[in-house]
Amino acid sequence: MTRKYFGTDGIRGRVGEHPITPDFVLKLGWAAGKVFAKQGKKRILIGKDTRLSGYMFESALEAGLSAAGVDVYLLGPMPTPGIAYLTQTFHADAGIVISASHNSFEDNGIKFFSRSGEKLPDDVELEIESWLDKPMETVAPALLGKARRINDAAGRYIEFCKNTLPFNASLQGVSLVVDCAHGATYHIAPEVFSELGARVDVIGAEPDGLNINKGYGSTNPRALQDRVLEIGADLGVGFDGDGDRLVMVTRTGRLLDGDDLLYILAKNLQNKGQLQGGIVGTEMSNLGLELALKEADIPFVRAKVGDRYVMAELQKNNWLVGGENSGHLVCRHVQSTGDGIVAALQVLQAIQEADGQVDVLLKGMKKMPQSLVNIRTDDNKDALIRHPQVQAKIKDVEARMNGRGRILLRPSGTEPLLRVMVEGDEKEVVQALAEEIAAVITDVAS
To answer: In terms of pTM, does the model score above 0.70?
Structure first.
């Protein structure tokens, strides 16, 4: 069966436009409640990021779940991976996240975690969708679900993050700039790093419901780079709006993306004899990462874009570490899902063990220039990719690259975008080639 609403990362869209409307989310809560209640599961956690619309959708989900006879535990603003963790520790049957991750405040979304803190299996998502087509019926008044708020959720997750490091680990003497993107980590991340002993300078931690990801965070790292250089910090740590993405900045202002951080983690685990296999990247991972890992005799495989696919590949191979160049990093030995704070702690530990020499950790890693062009379209993206004119252009560009690069066209799973990525030897060349392909797609779509 084909999903009608669920994408690679839950259900996402613009607030007020179907399906991101209060009536749909009410029905979604009821449908999810019916699926879990049918299995005898009647306890679900709900958390959210700092978007203004989160209040509205939290209430809608609560009402829908209660109507299905499911008890609800409200966590308030909480990073997505924190909700995954708390779903496990509360022995809940599922966790629901209200967030559109790195998108601006005008968007929102709903995603689910299973009781093990992992994304829901495809068959469960499909069953929820099947209930959305049925008339909504409320259980008997005596069977309605109850709701209560968990007041110590933040403290529980802070302790969990700290405990992913060895007991005697310390960040004493390390100066950090922490950028929370005015998102869900604003009251969590600074506490984690400061309680471990770091000197913390915080930016992007004044959410007002409208400024999430605006000018700050992993998708807007310039503010983090500027602040690190301004105060002479050792490192900068930047998250996205829901806390599952991570970028870092060195004391010289160098930006480290997910590929850089994945290589650091891989080499550190290899040096300690704890790697357990290889590394999972995605179709978007830089070819330089693949070549550097090959040189280090570390196996590498590519999954489809999306942390659920990275996790599936890790589980299939029983490997520990994988991620995306966007900064979604999965460290299975310490967390069940991609977690920006936990990944940052693992990277900081690796840097400490290398006496703070980030350049030493990245030795052998030479990334190839990549150019990514996003085309906003509501058309059938797969049909656009298959269009004869588009395919002819791709063949033309591949011939001109003569085996010295890659072309990837893929629909975004979270936004109405078709992404064109070209990778090769020279930055100016790959940029021009990506724009050539994008121009043909735009012409075809118009």
So the answer is: yes
